[in-house]
Amino acid sequence: MKPIIGISLNSLKDISQKDVGEIGTEGQDWQLLATDYIRAVERNGAVPIIIPNLKNIEDLTQIIDKLDGIILSGGHDVNPRTYGERNSGKAGKFDNLRDACEIFITQYALEKDIPILGICRGFQILNITLGGTVHQDLKTAGYPEHSLSNSNRNEASHSIKIIENSPLFEIFNREEAWVNSYHHQGINTLGRNLKVAATSEEGLVEAVFLENKKFVLAVQWHPEMMYDNKDMNKIFEKFINSCN
């Protein structure tokens, strides 16, 4: 049997019918996921399942209990209230239901020792779930631009320094890699027991992990978009192998 990997979803409200390919009707809300995540899971011998954002949040346990691993996907900014901060006005749109669902999913998966791979927003959700905080806007915090939407999604934008004795070093087997970059927020204070696996050139945390778990790794970039990069695929390979 192939492992079953649950992937969290974006919630989109006030979106036009045109924006979703003229399906459905005006005024509907949507829960969507980029196909890159699904293909990355398929490519590495697992079966992807989409985890919806439920109003009855505790019902999510019935889904999670059937999963072998979880990918926390990218998307909108997390509401600063979840990490005890006032909204600075520099963050983007929020979806409070998605925030609550993903924090619940993360807490439950950690308790059950279900492997987790966090990507972009998912990297931040893991940190926030463990009591950490994020910079609401990196440029305001004095960092260079990290939301580099003028490059192709599979194109590397900047380098990262990989920390030895981390799962990422085991995967890449070197101290430097180049990654894409589509975010304007990043970790400020590190969550409980999280360890840094990689930093950007200017010292911004780019990857974190937890020890004494089957697999808990989160990255700020989008390895699923770098579909033609063998090293990035190794992240999914390592994750899915831990789910067997």
From TrEMBL:
Hydrolase recorded as keyword: yes
One Pfam family it belongs to: Peptidase_C26
Record's keyword terms, sorted: Hydrolase
Single GO molecular function: hydrolase activity
PANTHER family per UniProt: GLUTAMINE AMIDOTRANSFERASE PB2B2.05-RELATED
Name assigned to this protein: Gamma-glutamyl-gamma-aminobutyrate hydrolase family protein
Organism name: Peptoniphilus ovalis
